[in-house]
Structure formats: C-alpha cells, structure tokens
C-alpha cells in the first residue's frame, strides 16, 4: 500500500510526460556512484540512458548494470594511469605536502592539475575528435546531455547536438567554477574558498587568508583555463571561452544541501540535491549482524577511508589498530591491506563493508571516515557523529563543515596522527552527547525538506527535457563583461561627469571672484 | 479517489507533526487576500490561527471567515483614513506625478512615505504599547509570528514572545529591504530597482539610471529607517536597528516566482511561492456564462483596475468605453462608477467579477489590468495575455516584467491614454499569436515546478514551527559590518602592508645605490 501511495504520489507530483533520451558524460569513482543513482531512477521512469564510457575503464563499473546503453570511446590512457594518478594525488595531499616549501608545493600542485587536465583532454579527444562517434551521437536523437563536469567538453557535445545541458556537481564551494562560470556571487567575507579549511565565520586573519586564497585561485584559473580556451577555440575554429561554455548549462545540480553547506547566495538554476544516494539501512549479512550484536550496549564503530585507499603504510595501520583495540566498542574496518599486528579482538577487517547499512544500524555509535562527501551524507542521513581523517581533495574541507556544526572531531594529519589522537576523537564523539545531538539535528534538516533530493534532481532533468532548457532561470550576468557586471563603466562615466562639473564650477567661481576683485581693484585705483 | 491520493500524497510529502499556534500580523487589501489563503490551508492542517486586527477595519474582511481567532487592537486612525491615503497615493502616481518637477515630486513622495510610516507607527502603538494585549499574547503560547511586513513591528513581538518569525512578502525587487535587511546580493548591473520600470537587460544609459536610483533608495532608507530605528530603540531601551531586526526573520516567503521575476541571486531562507492563491476556474454565474457564451468565436476580454479604483474621471471612463465598444469581443468590466455614456453593447459593467474564474474560461482572449500582482498571477496561471494600465506602487514594474516576456502590452499613462492606444493594445495581444504563446510559456513555467507554491509556503511555516526556527539557512553576512562584508578592512590592511614593503624595498635599493656610488666616488677621488 505504501509503495502504491509513493508511486501515485510521484506521478501526482511530476506527471509523466514523454520519455526522453539521455546522453551521459563519462565520470569516475564516487562521482559515478551518485550519478548512477539518478540514472537508475530516470530509467525507472521510462527514459533511455546512454553512457559514454572510456575504453577500457574500471572506473564506471560497466559490468554492474545492463540497464544502460553504453557508447564506448577510445582514450590514450588506461585505467591504471588513472589509478596511478589518484595514488599520487593522495600521497601528495596526505604525506608529502607538509614537507614542501611554498614554491615546491605550488609546482607539484600545478603538475598534478596539468596531469588531470591532460586526462580530460584525452577524454575530449576520444569523443569529439572521433567523427564516427560524433555522427552516432548526432543520429542518436538525444534530448539532453547530463554531465559531472569533472571531465570537460560535455558542453561542446551539447552544443554540437543542439540539446540542453545539465551539470551534476559532486561538491561545490570551489569558488572559481561557481563564481566565474556559474555567476554565483561569492563574497570572500563569508564564503570560504575550497581547500582553505575555513568556515563562514572568519576572523580578520582568516579573511586575509581567504582573500589571498581567492587571488591564488584567480591565477590558477587564468593558467588552467587558458589551455582549455585554446582547446575549445581550436575545436570550434572561433574564439571560445571554456568558462562561457560552462555557463550555458541549463541546470546545475549540486550534490550537497544546507545540512552540509554554509548558507550562501545562490541562483535559480542551481539546485541543492545533496544526499540523493542515501537510503534506509538494509539488513546486514548474517555473520556481520552477529558480530554487531555481540557489541552489546557499547555498540559499534564503522571505519572506512574510502575506495581510493586500499593500503596504508604498515606503521600507520598498526598505530590505528592499536588505538582501536583500546575502545569498548566493536569496530568494522574496511581495509584492503595486510592485517595489522596490533589488531585488537574487538576489530574486524573487511575488504568491503555495506557502509550505509552499517551507519543506519541502531548499534552504530561513530563513523571514522576520510571525509568523502558520499560517506558524510550517509552519516548525516542516519545521524551518526564522525571522526575525520582527511586525505586529499575536498575531504579536509568536507570535514571542516561537519566540525563547524559540532558533529565531528577532525584529525588533521594522518602522517603525524598518534594512537591517543584517534582514541580521544572516538571517545569524545561517543561520550560527549553534544556530537550525537548535533548529528541528529543535521539529520533532521536533511530529512525535513519539501521534496526528496533524488526526486528533485530527476524533476529538473525532466523539466529541461520537457521545456527544451531552462533559460528563464539563467541570470543576465552571463551576458555582461566583468566591468559591466561591476558597473565600472558607469562609475567611470559618473566620476568623469562629476569631475568636469566640479572643474567648471571651480573655474566659474574663480572667474567671478577674479572679475569682482579686478573690478574693485580698478575702482579703488581710479578713486 | 483523486482527492484521497492528493491528501495521502500531502501527508507523505510533509508528514503531520504537532499542530501549532500561529500569530498573524495585521495587513490589508490584496496583501491580506494572499495571506488568508495560507492561513486557510494552515487551519485545514489543524493549526490554530490568531489574527491581529485593527479596531475598526474594513481591510481585513474579518466578517468573511469565522475560522480564525481574532485579537483586536486599537489604532488612532480608522479605515477611512487608510482609504483616503490609498486614494491620494493613486492620484499622485497616476495623475499628478508627471505634472511635478523633480523637487516637488520628491517632497510629495516623502510626504506620502511619512504618512504610511505614521500608519505603521499607529499599528505598532496599538499592539506593543498595550500592556494588556502584550500580556495576552505572551500567555497565548504562540509558536510563530507570521507577518506581511508592510506594517512594521512584528519582529518586536516575535522577540518579546521569543518565537520564530516568518515574513510573507507581497512582491520583491524593492532593493533596499531585500539587500540591506535580507542580505540578498543585488548587483545593479542586472537587478533593476523597483519603480524604475527597467528589466534585467539594461543599456549603458539604463544602468546609469539604475545606479542613480539605487543611490536615491539609499538616501530614502537612511531617512525613513532613522525614524524606525528611533522607535525601536525607544521601545527596547537600547540601540536597536529596524533593519537588523528584520534580518532576524527565519524565512522570507516571496509571493512571486521565476515566471515573473527576472532571474537573480537569492538566499537559502528566501522562498519564491508566487501564485499560491491561484486555483482552477469554477463555473460562472448563469447569466454571466450566457453573456460569455454569446461572444462566439471572438471570445471575451476581462477588464479590471483592481479594488482600489472604484471610480474614474468621467472622460476617462467614456474614453475607455468607446475604445472597448470597437472590438468584436464581449467585455466584462469590473467598475463601481457611473455607467459611461459611450458604453458599447458588447460591454457589461459589474460591481464585482469572479476574476480568476473568468480568466480560466476557455472563451477568454485578453485581460486588461492595472497590474496588481494577484491579477497578473491569475493571468499567468491561465495563460492569458495582458494589456496593462498601471496606476501606482508596484504596478508599473509588474507590467514591465510581463512586457519583457512578451505576454503584455503596456499603456504607460492612463491620463494621456487615447481610445486608439487601448484598441491597438487589445487587438495586438489578441491577433498577434506571440502574446498568447508567451503567456502560455509563462503558464507552463508556473505549473511545472516540483512543489505547488501554497504547499511550499505551508511547508516552510511548519518547518519553522517544528524546528523552532531555520537558523541553518541564515547567511553569516547578517553578522558582518558593511566594511567587513566588502572586506574593506582586509584590503586596507593588505594595501598598507604592500605600501610599507614597497617603501622599504625602495629605501633599501636607494641606500645600496647611494652606498655603491659613494664608494665608487670616493675610489675615483682617491685615484
């Protein structure tokens, strides 16, 4: 009965229009996990979904679902190259970065950024420079391109196919993309830049740091986007800006919400659909359930550093294991490495854990996480406080968001982490009730919204298909130059007018005063 | 069956929490029409609603509904004063304003603004300065104050009762309130000021006009709010800013949507719920239906200048009637004045018309309107193109929005309007299919949203009651001073540092050059 009501409710809310034909831009890893949930739902609602997949790739789990159509394309790099890149990124962020001086850090950072951009170029080449593939796509009568713009060029294909484009972003607050390409106002006084580990409440010193970071981002965007602009310009044979092309997207689906984001100005075509992959917990496998139940009143701790980390240095894994051995809770640890020597009897290692089902289990007391956005959202959904051990990319910042809301303790550096740090963190979030209360408050905010995030994401994708775009939500700022946006031309004009007026008035006053003085002088001389 | 599904769907979407106790701030006229719809829905959902009503008042139609509780308060002015004020406002805007020079216009404008503020003060006095009433309210165990802040001081009562506050705004784009008190970014390059009759697409000259208008609004806000600040400060006995108090509201329900508004940046606690009063058309009274059907294929034109205008100067009404007599459509005209001598056989005058039911009638071809937001929304809902004859307040601007979207022809000045202008306008929107197409496009945008506007308004009011506020949606900008918001202190600091560094480097260079020169001079002298 509940299912029937849910289905009828869905039809009542959305209506069932014609079914569409959706082209999906390639993505990878956790980006793909989220995207796949949306695609499954779109297929449930009768749409056809075609996914562009690099050939070969282990990153999009093409074997997992035969519900999508796949369109393969060739890339010059293979899955191992991507894997190696991610390893290098984690090594740099978690282990090497604090040994480098400012210049070394910047050089390495740009080196990695260029590598990532080269991968994007190889994806672009594989698709838009393949006449056969592009012909196939043109003949595919697609209604929309759906893209996680982690890899660029989906805007080129949308333009070539003359269909609307919807972005689905993994996480926002990157400043440059949302502000410069999306036209989202981002006052640096309360919008912290990504990677700064700042919150919306900044001291004077922190605001200095934020503004200087914005400046480095400006430099970064100039350097990185110059290459993209050249690529786009070469493809179209006319001057084309990558950022302007991005700005043409009809809807930006941001996969966060106000349970996570610091409140900020945003735009009508930007929709916050965070947590769309979250679902109620399903029953655990029998042996796992038995282990969980054996924890008694102490409950369990769920521990995962995500899919990117399958092995840790031996001393790190030993240190973690020894800390976990000292807590009364049972621990379920997702880890692909060698069994640590110090592993306690309360801890079990699994190659893979059903993370969402464990986080939704009534016995779960805490979640030790690297701070990936998907895991954080599962913890928010189930109201579980966190201990964060961030590794790279958006993870440190994600955890700062949770810490600022009192739902997490964060250990800044896995390399210098001591067993006591981890122990203190876990004990704090389990024994200090404020962490659980705050996690439950976030959970309430997450659930108490007018429309479920997955339904909202699907609604806007279907809206764009039904209405051939959503131009009525696109701010006019996209059509202004930077100086027009800030009205610098108007100010220059008004200041010029004012200066001329003041000058003329001054000259006239001077003339009249001189004239009067001259006359009175002449008079007195005559007299 | 459909009703059951709808009701079940509603419960599924919102859930039924505890029922709340809602205190409603007094308002008037068309503001009250919208607010009442929300209140009726809240009562349907089991909440108690108490409305503060000035004693006596004909503006809130207290006789119409016995579903609300009423709490009367005394005001020093009566309904006639209010009526006279509105008449004066219309006379000034529609008839007198173009005869005045800039200075005379400003003097009259401020005179009217002060009069309106005095009315608001008399409402404030009647409520917050009545110890008996305030005691009653304190004992009323209210969960929320709901207010159309057309009349101020609801924030004082919310603070006194220690309950959250939800605003429901009639229409936005007033610039000063939304930007200064709500912290909504409003770049003047594409956010036209209210009353400017500008759109989001502005030429260089129009942007100059807009910026100069923003400046006049700044002056206006300084003058008007100074009086409010004094009133608030006197009441609380501590320095209190009216604008800061407004900024404490948890949710701002704006009664427009992107079918009407130019797309613009907004904030998480600002919800666009425009058109919440719109409903499908009900059957017309029998004689009216017969008259409508007698129009045949030509259809009908619906004509109303709103409830504020019941009489027009005789020459104006005659001129309008003579123009309408020349169209093939039948006309239904809501008019309380004397029957014009030139009234055509195709035109019938009614003291009151069921406007929404007429606009939703399949025979309706056009709507002649003064541009009140409620009427415009009914036309959007039913996809009817408009001829606008704006009179005062937000009406000229409302119609500019419809004209910019190609769904209306606007006659700028009722005083100088000629029969041919009205005739041309009506013929254009009926015979040029683009107007109907654009009106239908707006209608599609209006209907095609993830949640109905009334449901969304009710959801957020209930959210605030359930969660004792919505502080997680309130931007940190509220807690910054103007110079912190714009980071002027940071820029001043950085420029100072930069200047000192440049100065020191310059001095050092000079010293070394001098030193070298001095040494080489000494050497050469020695030689």
UniProtKB/TrEMBL annotation, chains A, B:
UniProt key word Hydrolase: no
Catalysed reactions, as listed in the record: glucuronate acceptor + UDP-alpha-D-glucuronate = acceptor beta-D-glucuronoside + UDP + H(+)
Keywords: Glycosyltransferase, Membrane, Signal, Transferase, Transmembrane, Transmembrane helix
Enzyme Commission number: 2.4.1.17
UniProt xrefs under CDD domains: GT1_Gtf-like
Pfam families in the cross-refs: UDPGT
Signal peptide positions on this chain: 1-19
Subcellular location: Membrane
Record carries keyword Transcription regulation: no
Segments traversing the membrane: 490-513
Subcellular location, principal: membrane
Membrane disposition: Single-pass membrane protein
Similarity comment: Belongs to the UDP-glycosyltransferase family.
Name of protein: UDP-glucuronosyltransferase
Organism annotation: Labeo rohita (Indian major carp)
């Amino acid at each position: 009965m509940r299912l029937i009501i849910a289905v009828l409710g869905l039809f009542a809310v959305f209506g069932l229009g014609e079914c569409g034909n959706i082209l999906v831009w390639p993505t990878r890893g956790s980006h793909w996990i989220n995207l796949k949930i949306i695609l499954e739902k779109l297929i449930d609602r009768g749409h056809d979904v075609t996914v562009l997949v690099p050939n070969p790739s282990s990153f999009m789990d093409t074997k997992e679902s035969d519900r999508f159509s796949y369109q393969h394309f060739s890339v010059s790099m293979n899955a191992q190259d991507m894997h190696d890149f991610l390893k290098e990124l984690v090594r740099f962020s978690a282990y090497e970065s604090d040994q480098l001086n400012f210049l070394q850090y910047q050089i390495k950072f740009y080196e990695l950024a260029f590598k990532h951009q080269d991968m994007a170029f190889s994806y672009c080449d594989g698709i838009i420079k393949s006449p056969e593939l592009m012909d196939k796509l043109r003949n595919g009568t697609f209604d929309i391109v759906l893209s996680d713009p982690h890899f660029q060029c989906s805007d080129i294909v949308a333009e070539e196919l003359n269909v609307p484009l919807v972005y689905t972003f993994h996480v926002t607050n990157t400043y440059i993309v949302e502000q410069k390409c999306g036209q989202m106002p981002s006052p640096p006084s309360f919008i912290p830049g990504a990677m700064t580990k700042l919150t919306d409440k900044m001291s004077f010193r922190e605001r200095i740091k934020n503004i200087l970071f914005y400046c480095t981002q400006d430099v970064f965007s100039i350097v990185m986007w110059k290459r993209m602009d050249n690529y786009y310009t070469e493809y179209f044979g006319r001057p084309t800006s990558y950022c302007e092309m991005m700005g043409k997207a009809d809807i930006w689906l941001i996969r966060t919400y106000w349970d996570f984001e610091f409140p900020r100005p945003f735009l009508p075509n930007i929709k916050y659909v965070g947590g769309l992959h979250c679902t109620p917990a399903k029953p655990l496998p029998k042996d796992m359930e038995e282990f969980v139940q054996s924890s008694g009143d102490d409950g369990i701790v769920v521990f995962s550093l995500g899919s990117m980390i399958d092995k840790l240095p031996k001393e790190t894994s030993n240190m973690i294991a020894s800390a976990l051995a000292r807590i009364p809770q049972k621990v379920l640890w997702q880890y692909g490495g060698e069994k640590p020597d110090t592993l306690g009897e309360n801890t079990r290692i699994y190659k893979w854990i059903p993370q969402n089902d464990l986080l939704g289990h009534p016995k779960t007391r805490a979640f030790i996480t690297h701070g990936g956005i998907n895991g954080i959202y599962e913890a928010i959904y189930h109201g579980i406080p966190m201990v964060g051990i961030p590794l790279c990319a958006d993870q440190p910042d994600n955890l700062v968001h949770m810490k600022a809301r009192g739902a997490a303790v964060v250990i800044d550096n896995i390399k210098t982490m001591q067993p006591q740090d981890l122990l203190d963190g876990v004990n704090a979030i389990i024994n200090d009730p404020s962490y659980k209360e705050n996690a439950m408050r976030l959970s309430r905010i997450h659930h108490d919204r007018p429309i479920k995030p997955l339904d909202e994401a699907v609604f806007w994708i279907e809206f764009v298909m039904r209405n051939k775009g959503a131009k009525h939500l696109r701010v006019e700022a996209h059509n202004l130059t930077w100086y027009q946006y800030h009205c610098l031309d108007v100010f220059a004009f008004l200041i010029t007018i004012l200066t001329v007026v003041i000058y003329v008035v001054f000259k006239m006053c001077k003339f009249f005063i001189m004239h009067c003085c001259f006359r009175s002088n002449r008079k007195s001389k005559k007299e």
